[in-house]
Design a protein that fits this description.
Elements (H helix, E strand, L loop, with lengths): L2 H15 L17 H10 L5 H17 L6 H5 L6 H17 L3
Helix pairs in contact: 1-2, 1-3, 1-5, 2-3, 3-5
Length: about 100
């Protein structure tokens, strides 16, 4: 599975189950996921392999770098003031970037 397709499933999970940014938690008690939690959940639901998750994460890092973020995905996700809309926008931009590259 292409990383862009996998990220689309992760986006759907965030949209339907909710986004959260509790430090060091892939999900909260309500079932909402962080960005990494959504990618792992997509894999666990049968959408892509662990290699796909790694490649999708690499595309997220690429997009974050293009936006000037030098840290990792987790710190970006839990940055004070971060919103679900920010997370979905990041996924949209990453999906677009990976798709245009054929991934």
């Amino acid at each position: 599975m292409r990383p862009s397709v996998h990220l689309g499933y992760a986006r759907q999970i965030l949209t339907e189950w909710g986004w959260q940014n509790t430090p060091y938690r892939l999900r909260n008690a309500r079932g909402a996921r962080c960005l990494c939690g959504a990618m792992l959940t997509a894999h666990r639901l049968g959408y892509g392999s662990l290699e796909t998750v790694d490649r999708a994460g690499a595309w997220l890092i690429t997009e974050l770098r293009s936006q000037g973020w030098t840290g990792l995905i987790g710190p970006w996700n839990r940055q004070p003031g971060r919103t679900a809309s920010d997370a979905l926008s990041l996924l949209d931009a990453t999906i677009r970037r990976a798709s245009l590259a054929g991934h």
